[in-house]
Amino acid sequence: VMLEPFFEHCRALVQDDFAAASLMRLPVLELLKGNLQDLAVPERAQIGARHLMVFGPTAATASLLLQEELKDQPATVIFGSSFPGDKSVAAIYREIAHIKQAMEVGGCSMLVHAEDVYESLYDMLNQFYTQALGRTLCRL
Description:
By secondary structure, this protein is an alpha+beta fold. The chain has 2 domains: about 1-55, no CATH class; about 75-140, no CATH class. The chain has 6 helices and 4 strands. The chain has helices spanning about 5-15, 30-40, 40-45, 60-70, 90-105, 120-125, and strands at about 75-80, 110, 130, 135-140. The strands form 2 sheets. A two-stranded parallel ribbon has the order 1-2. A two-stranded antiparallel ribbon has the order 3-4. Strand 3 (about 130) and strand 4 (about 135-140) form a beta hairpin. The two termini are about 30 Å apart. This is Rnf213a protein.
């Protein structure tokens, strides 16, 4: 629901490039629910569903997702920081270690104001995994 205005704005920017505006209608909530349902069923999650990355205009987006869509699933919320002291390399490594731990536990991980680590998650988001010693590994 919070993301609807964002997608409406995006549609308005590119609407002239499409002959029919009906092609632009994205069922945002249905897409989110479908991806989250794949996450909840291990067999479907292994087939190749990509990791879902949702950008919202405020931290309230995370709260809404937790209350409405993730209420029956385990979820970890990881908050980034805007304090200058938290921009150090050591602080970013700690945040990445926290994300790595949440990934190992499984379930849904939500990053809020974690812009400093998004680039580090590129390989994971694109599923560049390797198998070693019976484990699935990813470079972070």
